[in-house]
Amino acid sequence: MEKLVSLCKRRGFMFQSSEIYGGLNGFWDYGPLGVELKRNIKDAWWHDMCQGHNELLQPAGAPSTYEMVGLDCTILMHPQVWKCSGHYDLFHDFMVDCRLSKKRYRFDQVRGKWAMRGDQKIFVTVMCEPEQESEELLRRALKFFNLRSKDAEQIRFADRFQSLDKLAANERLYVLAPDANELNTLTDPREFNLMFKTYVGALSGEEGAAFLRPETAQGIFVNFKNVLDSTRVRVPFGVAQVGKSFRNEITPRNFTFRSREFEQMEIEFFCHPNESPKWYEYWRNRRLKWYTELGLAGERLRLREHDADELSHYSCGTADIEYAFPFLPEGEYGELEGIAHRGDFDLRSHAEGKLDPKERPLKLELNEHGQPRHRGSGKDLSYRDDLTNERYIPHVIEPSAGADRATLAFLCEAYHEDQAPDEDGKMQSRVVMKLNPRIAPYKAAVFPLVKKDGMPEIAKEIYGALKTKVNTFYDEKAAVGRRYRRQDEIGTPYCITVDSQSLQDRTVTIRDRDTLEQWRVKIDDVVGEIEARVQ
To answer: Which CATH number fits domain 37-73+218-410: 3.30.930.10, 3.40.50.450, 3.40.50.620, 3.40.462.10?
Structure first.
C-alpha cells in the first residue's frame, strides 16, 4: 500500500489537502491524473445507471422496464430534513477518550489482542498498518511487562484480534490504550454526532443552525413530489445523484477510504411494495456486475448480506459490495457500496415526522407530551397509479456508492509490478497501472521516435486528431523506452509511436500496455482504432 500511496503523490493522482501547511487530517485533493480518473468513474456510473439507460427495454434480471432521471441537490438543507430523517438523533459513532494521552478513538476501530504473562492478562491495542500489527503488539507488551526482546517467549498472545466494542465492560479495565503506558485509561464510550454544523445568514444561534449533508439521499426524498409533478415518470423509476457529502469522522484513516469530505453516487429507486424484494435482488446483482465489468473481480470482491444486528434503523435488508483493500488485515473487506431496501421509511418520515426505529410496524415517535418528536412536512408523498387508480407509498431500493472508495479500489486493483524489455531487449522491472481503458486518465499517448526528420510533425498531427476524441498525452522527451514506462505507471492503455517507417508508408506502431503487443496501423485509421478499443 505504501508503494501505491507514493505513486499517487509522485504522479499526481492525490495529495493531502493543504499540504504546505502540514495538511488537514481526513481531507484529500485530487491531482491532474486523479481528477481525470475519478471523473471517468463518475461518468461511467452516470452513463450506465442513468443517462444511457433505455427505459423501453427490460434489462436482464429486472422485474419490468423502468425509468431513470437525475437530480442535483444542495449541500445545505432545512434542518428539519435531518430531524425527520433520524440523522439529528441517530447519526453518530461511539468514541472513547484516553485520559493519559488526551487522544480520541472510534470505539469499534481500536483493535488488539489479549497478552498473558504468568497469571497477568492485559488487552494490548495498536493503531498501525496491518503488516506492522504483530510486531507492534509484541513491542508494546514487552515494554509494559518490562521485558527485553530475548524474553518474548514469556508472553502468550490470543490467536485472534478483537475490537474494543467486542469486550465486556469489566474486560475494558485491562485495556492498554494505543498511546498509553498504563491500563484502564479509556473513558466509557459515548455518542459523537457525525454531522458538521454551520450557520446560515447573520444569525449564529440555534435559529440559524444548519448542517452539511452527511448523505445525498435525503435531497432526493424531499424532491420526490417535485420530480413526479415536473416529469412524466411512473413507478417504478429511479433518481440518480452524484455529489459531495461530509461526515466528521472521529479517526479518518487508510488514505481516502475514510475521509471527512467525500463524494457519493446514489440512486433512490421507487417501486411498488409488492415488487420491492425483486427490485432489491436486481439492484444487488446489477451493481456487483458494474464493478466486475470495470476491472474489479476475483476473490478481492464480494457481495455480503447484512446480519439482522447490522441493519440501519430504516432498512428491511442491506447488502454490501466489499473489496479486500491491501491496508486491511488479511481476510477482511471494506465497504465499496451498500444496496439497502429502505421500505417506505423515508417518504413517510418526511410526510408524517420522525418515525420510531424501535417500533414494528414503524410508528410516529412521540415526545413526553404525546406530540410528534419532529414534525414532518405534512405533504402527501404517496403515489397514485393512473392505470389502476391504486394509491400507495412507494418502497425504496438505494444503491449508494462512494466515488472516492471506488477510485481507491480501482487504483489498488490496477497496481502491478512485472518485467518488460527495454530498448536493447533486456528485461527490466516496471510498475504498471492496469486500469480499464474506459476509466484510465489518458486513453493514448503519442511519441515521435526522435525529435527530427519530420517525425514530430506527424506525431503532432495524430495527437491533434486524437485529442478531439479521447484524452491523449504527447511526449517527445527522453528515450522511447523511458516514455513507455512513464505511461505504464499512470495507466495509459495505448502508446502510438511515429518512426522512420511512418515517413515512408504512413503507418505507426501501437503498443498495448498490458500485453506489450505491438502492431502497425495506417495513420488515417489511428483515431478509429483507439476509439474502438477504449470504449
So the answer is: 3.30.930.10
